[in-house]
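Q: Please design a sequence for this.
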């Protein structure tokens, strides 16, 4: 029996309601691993440039990896892959929590959905059995209620991945939520809308199978050792979550402020930081499967009708995009906005970006009260923020346009709106600024799913991390362009492996290196992979995703940054007058990648990587 895998991928045709399983041989798995890597191979083979992301021909792929369900900590993750309705290209999202772990416990490594149901349904997987069940009574419910209703119908400990009203309404920034009130999300790229287009309300899983591994004793020992190391090195992270560094981000010029146009916001950042949260609305924390950090926040709610209840609190990205980017400095309001996004199932990054964009459009007279149902949009106004979220999810007033994403909204509004629509390839920027960490400039421009700091995670090596394994024994100067194309390419390759193994990237802060990952993979699977093969596999996966985008028309013309980020300095604060030198970094990046000057992988590079496409 193959080790590290359950040996079954579930295929569900929602149009015909037929179900079957298959799997891949060891050579195929060694090339594509699992998670988003294996998902990329499936998506490339089954869809193309003509596929409508919201049509029945798009495939929706949920995939785990060979470390999920093992004794290695921080491996309770899964990937979701489809052609993105937000960007029209490669779509990939990643979620923590317990759902991926429970899918393997139920006996499957992944699920591929095809077609579309004629009426609402959900999938129930339990200990190897699979049922398509009606979801008429659940359709329309938010993600919290959906989990509760499905658990009552199935099993009290079932893990549920579902959409809320945003996915049902085909909002192009809709998320797929899991873990109920703890609210873990496959948030980016609008894949919740793909789920909604298939009339698939939820996927519930439960099981008790163990993941078979090649060397269980060695894997368990390595897991215990690294868990202690990670916990020791991430104590502050555990105490304050991802938002513990928010004030530092503001100080160095990384935090987005007023739709990315303002340089400093010291007093506001202090009010919404992880430390401020710990002193006010924080009631506890939660952990993903196998986690030893516990960055998840639990906060108390003050707004009706949820006053007095506790639920998942805002993370750094949410505090940045929904808080500082709209100049909202009230934690209770941001927590309420986060709660709405989680219940409705909408990406807080894209939603927050769209809200700030709309406020600036209103400020500049590009939209008026006629577009906003009489609402005056204002910076720092919590009521504005909450109202815009409701309008986006329900597609009311200006929300109809904003629900399509910032790029489409700017095109519809016209005028100079595109000047301050902050996205790359249609995906809104996360809450990290390339003017503060310039490797993010080339990283965002070349990220396969659009602007994403986690597709490369390069900025971590400009603010503290080192990696002798990758040739970076010292922290790099964040304002220097020296080796930044190389850094972006190598970290993208590494993150492709993280996203395929399904390991949390925060373990890097715990001192984990490339060799650790290779040892874990080999102990799980029984392979003899070297560090070099490991990194080359990551390179193969990144190039495969790029070739999917090339087939969709992506090239150098699309490897760009928003004009505001590229040409307008913040003028004050930690980033001052720094701007990312994108052209030179791209030149270095393409050369290291073996791509043409147009940003297309050369045939000899594809041959070298054994990519047969």
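A: Design:
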């Amino acid at each position: 029996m193959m080790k590290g895998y359950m040996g079954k991928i579930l295929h569900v045709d929602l149009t015909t309601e037929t179900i079957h399983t298959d799997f891949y041989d060891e050579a195929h798995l060694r090339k594509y691993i699992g998670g988003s890597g294996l998902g990329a191979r499936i998506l490339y083979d089954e869809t193309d440039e003509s596929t409508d992301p919201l049509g029945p021909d798009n495939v929706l792929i949920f995939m785990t990896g060979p470390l999920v369900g093992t004794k290695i900590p921080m491996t309770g993750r899964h990937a979701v892959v489809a052609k993105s309705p937000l960007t029209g290209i490669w779509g990939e999202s990643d979620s923590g929590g317990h759902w991926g772990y429970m899918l393997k416990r139920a006996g499957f490594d992944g699920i591929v959905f095809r077609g579309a149901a004629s009426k609402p349904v959900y999938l129930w997987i339990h200990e190897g059995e699979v049922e398509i069940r009606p979801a008429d009574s659940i359709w329309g419910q938010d993600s919290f209620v959906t989990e509760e209703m499905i658990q009552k119908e199935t099993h009290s400990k079932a893990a549920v991945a579902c959409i809320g009203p945003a996915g049902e309404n085909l909002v192009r920034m809709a998320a797929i939520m899991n873990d109920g009130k703890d609210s873990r999300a496959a948030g980016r790229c609008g894949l919740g809308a793909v789920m909604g287009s298939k009339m698939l309300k939820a996927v519930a899983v439960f099981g008790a199978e163990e993941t078979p591994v090649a060397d269980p004793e060695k894997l368990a020992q390595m897991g215990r050792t690294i868990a202690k190391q990670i916990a020791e090195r991430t104590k502050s992270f555990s105490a304050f979550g991802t938002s513990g560094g928010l004030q530092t981000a503001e100080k160095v010029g990384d935090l987005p402020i007023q739709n990315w146009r303002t340089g400093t916001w010291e007093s506001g950042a202090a009010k919404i930081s992880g430390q401020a949260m710990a002193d006010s609305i924080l009631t506890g924390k939660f952990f993903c499967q196998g986690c030893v950090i516990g960055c998840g926040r639990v906060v108390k709610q003050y707004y009706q009708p949820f006053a007095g209840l506790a639920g998942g609190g805002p993370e750094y990205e949410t505090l940045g995009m929904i808080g500082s980017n709209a100049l909202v400095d009230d934690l209770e309001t941001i927590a309420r906005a986060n709660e709405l996004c989680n219940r409705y199932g909408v990406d807080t990054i894209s939603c927050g970006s769209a809200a700030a964009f709309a406020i600036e459009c209103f400020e500049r007279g590009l939209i008026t009260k006629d577009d906003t149902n009489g609402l005056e949009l204002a910076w720092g106004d919590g009521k504005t923020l909450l109202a815009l979220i409701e309008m986006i999810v329900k597609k009311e007033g200006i929300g109809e346009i904003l629900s399509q994403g910032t790029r489409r909204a700017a095109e519809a509004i016209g005028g100079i709106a595109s000047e301050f629509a902050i996205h790359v390839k249609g995906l809104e920027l996360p809450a990290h600024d390339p003017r503060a960490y310039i490797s993010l400039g080339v990283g965002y421009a070349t990220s396969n799913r659009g602007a994403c700091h986690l597709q490369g995670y390069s900025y971590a090596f400009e603010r503290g991390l080192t990696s002798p394994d990758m040739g970076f024994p010292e922290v790099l100067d964040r304002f220097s362009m020296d080796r930044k194309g190389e850094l972006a390419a190598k970290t993208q390759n590494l993150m492709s492996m993280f996203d395929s193994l399904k390991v949390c990237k925060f373990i890097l802060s715990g001192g984990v290196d490339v060799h650790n990952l290779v040892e874990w993979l080999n102990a799980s699977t029984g392979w003899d992979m070297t560090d070099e093969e490991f990194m080359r596999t990551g390179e193969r996966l990144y190039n495969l995703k790029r070739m999917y985008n090339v087939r969709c028309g992506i090239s150098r013309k699309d490897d760009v940054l928003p004009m505001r980020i590229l040409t307008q300095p913040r003028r004050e604060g930690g980033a001052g007058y720094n701007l990312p030198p994108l052209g030179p970094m791209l030149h270095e990046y393409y050369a290291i990648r073996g791509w043409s000057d147009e940003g297309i992988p050369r045939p000899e590079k594809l041959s070298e990587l054994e990519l047969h496409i």
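Q: Thanks. Anything notable?
A: The radius of gyration is 22 Å. The CA atoms of residues 192 and 611 lie 30 Å apart.
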